[in-house]
From TrEMBL:
Organism: Pontibacter aquaedesilientis
Predominant location category: cytoplasm
This protein's pathway: Carbohydrate metabolism; galactose metabolism
Binding residues annotated for Mg(2+), in chain numbering: 124, 156
Name of the protein in question: Galactokinase
């Protein structure tokens, strides 16, 4: 893929590019907690996008999306959202740099990779982070990595219309080979946790469906959580977000809540506790307990947060019936995309075969499975 992207760049723009790599992510546990100031445990994976970039001494940027085989050109003096949804992720990043007074000059870009779109593996965050990283490099802005993450997140808010938390962009930029990163989404402190994978693999089961309520429901969940916080603040003025709420606080005021809001809050408060427990289990090498937390996370997302769907639930139920699977859950925003499964290495083939057969029988859809390897975050590939 890398070679193809470089060749395409040279064919289109007749010069030697800088090449940047930017990965997608998995999230082991801690779903829909990031925008509630809570905890997440993602890792960057070997589903990646390559960016070949060079400045072009003009006032426009030209971009070629290799996977879509589409090209577009934009005036840097008039950066605004366009009709092309793929270009908006690029424009969003350029807009953020300009807003922060970085002088983005003309550039040419070819990008493409193997992150399946709409599978919940954060292809959009990989695009945003990869472009931010590449422009920072070629124009010598020296923007700290952390600020690039913030700009990438803001690009998603303003140009993709999703009020996402910070997890995906953070994981894409700060991933580390063989480690998951536990991020405190309030303080933005983080710790790396070694993933002892000698006997296990992380397997993704891609439902191949994306129900189209995903982004509207995402923003609705945020509002429901905010409504829960606003209510609790009447009793506990010190509460700033669901991160500050305990199970006891919630239960004490259950009767006062609108029932949907109560369910959403219950899920988030318990999920934050589960992330802490799962991290302790990881430290102790207790993968069995870790897996149980994954299943519990899924049940919360299914019944209380209500962001799952029948395809995801089916896959988790199937996995639960297999002894070789330690844990499984839906991953990311929900309503489709992938489940993440912790599977014993010696049963990998049986697992994928049985899952594919069962899914085909139930939905008539070919399930795609990927064994995810944990890799480093965005990096410069060439010049090395
Ligand atoms: C999406 C968002 F982009 C993340 O910020 C996060 O909220 C996730 O859904 C749910 O955990 O991937």
């Amino acid at each position: 893929m890398l070679q193809e992207i470089k060749d395409k760049f040279k064919a289109l723009y007749s010069q030697e590019p800088v090449v940047v790599r930017s990965p997608g992510r998995v999230n082991l546990i801690g779903e829909h907690t990031d925008y509630n100031d809570g905890f997440v445990l993602p890792a960057a994976i070997n589903k990646e996008i390559y960016f070949a970039v060079a400045s072009n001494q003009t006032n426009t940027f030209r971009a070629y999306a290799y996977d879509l085989q589409q090209e577009a050109e934009f005036d840097l003096n008039q950066v605004q959202p366009s009709d092309s949804s793929w270009a908006n992720y690029l424009l969003g990043v350029v807009a953020q740099l300009q807003k922060a007074n970085f002088d983005v000059k003309g550039f040419d870009l070819v990008y493409g990779g193997n992150i399946p779109i709409g599978a919940g593996l954060s292809s959009s965050a990989a695009v945003e982070c990869g472009l931010a990283y590449a422009l920072n490099h070629i124009f010598g802005f020296a923007i700290p990595k952390f600020d690039l993450v913030k700009m990438a997140q803001q690009a998603e808010h303003e140009y993709a219309g999703v009020k996402c938390g910070i997890m995906d962009q953070f994981a894409s930029m700060y991933g580390r080979q063989d480690y998951a990163v536990k991020l405190d989404c309030r303080s933005l402190d983080f710790d790396y946790y070694h993933l002892e994978m000698a006997d296990y693999r992380i397997v993704l089961c891609d439902t191949q469906v994306k129900h189209n309520l995903a982004s509207s429901e995402y923003n609705t969940r945020r509002q429901e959580c905010e409504a829960g916080v606003a209510h609790l603040q009447r009793h506990y003025p010190e509460v700033k977000s669901l991160r500050d709420v305990t199970v006891a606080m919630l239960e004490q005021h259950q009767e006062e809540f609108e029932s949907t809001v109560y369910k959403r809050c219950t899920y988030v408060v318990h999920e934050n506790i589960r992330v802490e427990e799962a991290c302790r289990a990881l430290e102790q090498g207790d993968m069995k307990t870790f897996g149980e937390k994954m299943y519990a996370s899924h049940r919360g997302l299914q019944h209380n947060y209500e962001v799952s769907c029948e395809e995801l639930d089916f896959l988790v139920d199937q996995a639960k019936d297999m002894d070789a699977v330690l844990g499984a859950r839906m991953m990311g925003g929900g309503f489709g995309g992938c489940t993440i499964n912790l599977v014993q290495l010696d049963a990998l083939d049986t697992f994928t075969q049985q899952m594919e057969e069962a899914y085909k029988l139930q939905f008539g859809i070919h399930l795609k499975t990927y064994v995810a390897e944990i890799v480093d975050g965005s990096s410069l590939v060439e010049p090395s």
